Amino acid sequence: MSKQTYHILGVMSGTSLDGIDLAELFFTYENGHWTYEIGTAATLPYPEIWITQLKAAITFSENELQQINLDYTTYLGAVISKFIADNNFQNLDAVCSHGHTILHQPQRGITLQIGNLPEIATYVRQTVVCDFRVQDVKMGGQGAPLVPIGDRTLFNEYTYCLNLGGFSNVSFEHNGQRLAFDISPVNTVLNYYANQLGLPYDESGKIAASGKIITELFETLNAYDYYQQSFPKSLGFEFVREKVLPEMEKFNPTPEDAMRTFIEHIGWQTARALPAKKGKLLATGGGAYNTLLIERIKFYLPEMELIIPDAKTLEFKEALIFGLLGVLRLRNEINVLASVTGAKQDHCSGKVFKV
User: Fold this and answer.
1) DSSP character for 18?
2) Which of 156, 182, 328, 331 has the fewest Cβ atoms within 10 angstroms?
3) Do 187 and 242 touch, CB atoms closer than 8 A?
4) pLDDT for the residue numbered 231
5) How far is Cα 16 from Cα 35, in angstroms, rounded to an integer?
6) Crossing angle of helices 62-86/48-56, nearest 10°?
7) Torsion of CA 73, 74, 79, 80, to 10 degrees
8) Residue ranges of the chain with per-residue pLDDT less than 70
9) Roughly how many angstroms between the first and final C-alpha of the chain, as a whole number?
10) How many Cα atoms occupy the beta-carbon half-sphere of 53 within 13 Å?
């Protein structure tokens, strides 16, 4: 008989590069339902040298990718070990880690999350469950998004679960199936322009609020083929680097105007992506702190009840759900939904490394 309670450390590094999320998690399975509690949690910012390397890695050769994978696994192991020691966590069942996405090209059968090498278990001296995406891509799926099974399991009272991170993604039930897909870039673009002003991000969207919408740019962004494609579909930083930023730079926008226009684009695409425009929408991720962005989403979805949860759930929902994915992997239960990723079948994904 499987365990009914789990003590987990969930670890997530997102494409917005705002740091490594670490969350102590407690899961309980009772009467066919999972419940959770988030304990000690923190986002540990990357040092500048790692931000530079992770941004550049998309252009690396195969040998350089192998080296950064080794280096990042060592670095991540040290960060996790210190967090466990500093907080005196005892009797963890596992560390469940996403790693950091460098390449995501599922149409070519490629996805790479660094920091998921077997040595990670030795570094942290714990059982580690990680590398959740590769198997799905091998099975013909997008390898993303993986969070929706957690949305279904832990947040099923909401019509939609919207995450506003480096990219936005949404999940919802439709005819008895969970559907999900990436909507658009978010902080990958907004932070790029905030960086031009010497800031890591635009707090509350205050700087963007001082800009103006460049109508022609807004219309150009909305015309991308990706937005016309049916799901399952997912985005990687390649889309931002190769399509979005070059197109935006043609307009030579100020950072203020670029961010203001892109926030309008996010709001428009978010509303357009949702089949029904009524219900309860849970918004999480760093973008939920962007007051202007939330206002624009509400503007385009006037009949939707938009709910922003408590700070821990808002900030650490992805770490929470990757923790759940790890627990399901330990139980050999389905943790990836074919209806979401497009894989040939539901499956149980993730590698388990023991000390």
Assistant:
1) S
2) 156
3) no
4) 84
5) 28
6) 140
7) 60
8) 1
9) 24
10) 15
